[in-house]
């Protein structure tokens, strides 16, 4: 039977109920899980013992919108540098929480450098890299003891490329006894999930509360990540960190990460995300933060900055003017947001359209809070600007971008509540 109506419902499933993990830095708190907004995080690629370079990059990542920033802590020199990094960030007014990334020798660094352990807001432990046999249990226990001592949350992060070999052998042996054994891929999935959950449960036995634990099971292929996290989410209530490890360079890394994470987020799975991009030569590390924010914003999960709707261009728009205006407008909006988000609450939901010709330009521009329709080939050089569906004015001249930015600023100032800044 043909329906006479269309059910208008969101395609996003309710968020999976997980423990809420509080990450603290001074008076600042970031909540991961328990229905809190999905948290964006990133990681530095500077040598951590290069204090000034690391401080500079952390500051850039935080300014771009990273709500947690992870540092490699792999040597005594790196561990000794962490308190200085924290002090310099605090002096600069940057209160982003720092996460220490530990492999192999984390039990030594956390116990031998207590100031490092205290300066960090969260630890990341890979159970596949904490030792073998009895040493593994002892080293893991040492790290959890430090987390308990200083009341720090921990991400237990299992990676496809650094599995606990003893556990993997155990899963293989169990699988061999099945009447219908899993394929090798299924064995790897089960090993990843089992390692994460058993490690988390062991941490709880050692005294770390369940609401201090975040889990991750990172792989490098899209369908593997989706399959693993679906099952992990079904089998535990720990907060989950999503990320496609070694996603790749440029568009490949972006597409792969978005393809995997958007499916899981759409199903209500995931409490914090990182987009693990390999930077192209000269590319800013902040690119991964921008992609993470745009992923969450375009899927309707969070708003960070007004995004520009713009057409792809065609034979009607052989001039580069509208492409240049779309880019400069998006950059302008992003650059203003550190101040605007404090001064003008709600401005991140504003919609802006930059269109290239008469075909869809005026219509799309009217749908945005602020829209501009540039002339295509052979069209009048007049440039109409619309506010909330109504034509506001027509721009002409060579400095259209500056004129349009002024109109945007005036709109923000008149339409969003002003919050007075204090010292």
UniProtKB/TrEMBL annotation:
Residue span(s) of domain IspG TIM-barrel: 29-292
Catalytic reaction annotation: (2E)-4-hydroxy-3-methylbut-2-enyl diphosphate + oxidized [flavodoxin] + H2O + 2 H(+) = 2-C-methyl-D-erythritol 2,4-cyclic diphosphate + reduced [flavodoxin]
Names of the cofactor(s): [4Fe-4S] cluster
Keyword Ligase: no
Keywords, ordered alphabetically: 4Fe-4S, Iron, Iron-sulfur, Isoprene biosynthesis, Metal-binding, Oxidoreductase
Domain IspG C-terminal span(s) in chain numbering: 308-408
Listed name of the protein: 4-hydroxy-3-methylbut-2-en-1-yl diphosphate synthase (flavodoxin)
């Amino acid at each position: 039977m043909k329906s006479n109506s269309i059910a208008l419902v969101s395609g996003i499933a309710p968020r999976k109920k997980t423990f809420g993990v509080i990450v603290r830095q001074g008076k600042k708190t970031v909540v991961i899980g328990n229905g809190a907004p999905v948290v964006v995080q990133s990681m530095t690629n500077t040598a951590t013992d290069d204090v000034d370079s690391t401080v500079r990059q952390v500051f850039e990542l935080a300014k771009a919108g990273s709500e947690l920033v992870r540092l490699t802590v792999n040597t005594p020199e790196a561990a000794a540098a962490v308190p200085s990094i924290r002090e310099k960030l605090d002096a600069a007014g940057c209160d982003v929480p720092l996460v220490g990334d530990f492999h192999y020798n984390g039990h030594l660094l956390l116990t031998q450098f207590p100031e490092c352990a205290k300066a960090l807001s969260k630890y990341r432990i890979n159970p596949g890299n904490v030792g073998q046999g009895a040493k593994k249990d002892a080293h893991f226990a040492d790290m959890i003891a430090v987390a308990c001592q200083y009341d720090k949350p921990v991400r237990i992060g299992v990676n496809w490329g650094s599995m606990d070999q003893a556990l993997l052998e155990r899963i293989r042996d169990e699988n061999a006894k099945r009447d219908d054994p899993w394929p090798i891929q299924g064995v790897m999935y089960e090993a990843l999930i089992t390692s994460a959950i058993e490690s988390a449960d062991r941490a709880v036995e050692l005294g770390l509360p369940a609401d201090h634990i975040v889990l991750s099971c990172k792989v490098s292929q899209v369908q593997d990540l989706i399959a693993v996290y679906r099952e992990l989410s079904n089998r535990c209530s720990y907060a989950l960190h999503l990320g496609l490890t070694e996603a790749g360079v440029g568009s490949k890394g972006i597409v792969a990460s978005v393809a995997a994470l958007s499916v899981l987020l759409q199903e209500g799975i995931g409490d914090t995300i990182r987009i693990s991009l390999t930077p192209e030569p000269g590319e800013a590390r902040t690119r991964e933060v921008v992609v993470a924010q745009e992923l969450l914003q375009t899927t309707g999960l969070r708003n960070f900055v007004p995004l520009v709707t713009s057409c792809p261009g065609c034979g009607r728009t052989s001039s580069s003017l509208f492409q240049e205006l779309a880019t400069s407008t998006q950059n302008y909006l992003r650059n203003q947001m550190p101040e605007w988000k404090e001064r003008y609450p709600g401005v991140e939901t504003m919609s802006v359209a930059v269109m290239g010709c008469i075909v869809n330009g005026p219509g799309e521009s009217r749908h945005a809070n602020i829209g501009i329709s540039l002339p295509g080939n052979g069209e009048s050089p007049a440039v109409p600007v619309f506010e909330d569906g109504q034509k506001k004015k027509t721009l002409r001249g060579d400095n259209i971008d500056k004129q349009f930015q002024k109109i945007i600023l005036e709109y923000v100032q008149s339409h969003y509540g002003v919050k007075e800044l204090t010292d």
